[in-house]
Please model this.
Amino acid sequence: MSDRAGHDAPEYMRRIRSFVLREGRMTPAQQRAFETHWARFGIDYTGTAQDFHAHFGRAAPLVMEIGFGNGEALAWASEHDLLRDYLGVEVHGPGVGRLMNALAARDASNVRIYKHDAVEVLEKEIAPETLAEARIWFPDPWHKKRHNKRRIIQPEFVALLATRMVSDGLLHLATDWEPYAQHMLEVMEAAPAWRNAVGPGQYAEKPEWRIETHFERRGLKLGHGVWDLLYRKR
Model:
């Protein structure tokens, strides 16, 4: 495709995705979760702003986790923080199915899920000043230099996210890839809508609300460090 053809293409076709959709095979239990539990926990993408108070049946602070993987951390957080509602966004079906089964097992009422691109959800389905907190933990680091542009933490993305946050809302980032941690810090320190919650240019200590997941333990065994970043909406 020529450069001009790419320029003339609709925005959604030109956008660089921060993920590759490799679905993998869902287990029978995960497949059944979509058949049995999606109507309860899932939100279908419509391209219009959602009334989350209606989805949850109450008015409570809303926490959004982008790219929740297998849902281990989201399931734990929602169970131990019942005064807030949780919105998970993930594109990979097996993780969504696994999380729905975990939520159904404890009859959870404070979690809803999108199986969709997080950027499009933020753009179209989340009204301004909706989110009390956003979490992006261990996103794909796209470690090859030619792929760095695919990283979700970019100036345009954090500017969009800021518009969806309430005043003083919290953004919590975490990664086990040091070059990505440095990239995150650089982007966030330059973002006018955000201030570092622990001091300019500083990484944060691991907060108690971020549990150590199977993914993180595997990385630690391989000698990876972990970097947390906490920012508040100005």
Q: What stands out?
A: Residues 30-233 form a domain with the Rossmann fold fold (CATH 3.40.50.150).
